[in-house]
């Protein structure tokens, strides 16, 4: 670690100067030799660095969402060229170039913090060894060696010997208890930060290897912090715990106010927005206006949460406009799943109402009356002369087919031929 910190010695002087300036401020409040003055100086250094890195954090968010969008295309390339790794890499780079994404953009905040992290480690290591470094002179060095945070010196480590800890004016038990608690808090904050990203701000409709990779990092990073944390001085643990808490809070703000489309966070955000819009009947902030504008521009490509939001506006008598505003609408029809009005969609099949017994009987009577008014068929008697049938017999010269017709009309289950009359019942 000392060798790596030596490569960043060029930034040691600026880091030490910032710490000294904050120490002069907090020393007037808490005293120059207290752990509060030096500890808050390190915390203020973290806050200053993270404020300067906000543009990189925004770029990280955009890159992460772009990578999530590209996962289906990347999966197709991997399946198409699974036997040709070189061609697979070429197609991946081509896809990144066409879409303007960079896989390393998600690591920019960590990479940008690395020089400051190692420079601070170099400063605290100089305090532990009793050597001046940067703008920290002999009086400041003596003050920093006296500073303790909950009984643990700033430059003490979990792996230090009892003699080295005693030279800093502390006990080994105090140092190990404080460093162990800080390592646990540092690992827990890292785990929670990654977990809320996976459970709330990931598009659940797309199952890609990228999600499995992020899930693996959720468990790998805390273990890495726990392993390396035993070799960090207390001051470095303060630095890293502070930056983890900052990252966690920053991510919570982004998830709440700028969630990933299709995620659970977007569903919660649109529910809150719908409640505010239906109550005030207008869009209040510019951010909400941009969200509504993006939803309207998607049209039929809206996800289920966005369609639910548009349907909620319609039920409330409001309509989303193309500029992101809402206006009162006379139409109260609910939109279908594709975003089209329900009036233009296919009507639902309705079941007929069940009729009462009197209604069914009256309907049967009406049907009989209607059938009685129909014209008579050829089976009924006509006014033809009786001589027509004998003439037909003489012309045909054949046997009458009356018996055949009677036999053919016999009901099923009866014997053919003439039937015996039923005997009258004896009473």
Describe this structure in words.
63% of the residues lie in helices and 2% in strands. The protein has 17 helices and four strands. The longest helix has 29 residues, at 172-200.
Secondary-structure map with pairings?
Layout: H1 2-7, H2 12-30, H3 35-52, H4 54-80, H5 85-99, H6 108-129, H7 138-146, E1 148-149, E2 152-153, H8 162-167, H9 172-200, H10 209-229, H11 234-257, H12 264-280, H13 286-298, H14 304-315, E3 318-320, E4 326-328, H15 357-372, H16 388-396, H17 402-408
Antiparallel strand pairs: 1-2, 3-4
Helix pairs in contact: 2-3, 2-6, 3-11, 4-5, 6-11, 9-10, 9-11, 12-14
Low-confidence stretches: 332-347, 370-412
Helix percent reads 55-70%
**Given the helix and strand composition, which structural class is it?**
mainly alpha
User: Which strand-content bin applies to the residues?
Assistant: under 5%
Task: Specify Rg, calculated over alpha carbons.
Answer: 43 Å
Would you count the extended β strands for me? 4
Strand line-up in the sheet with most strands: 1-2
Largest sheet: 2 strands, antiparallel
Q: Report the average pLDDT across residues.
A: 76
User: What overall geometry do the principal axes of the alpha carbons give?
Assistant: elongated
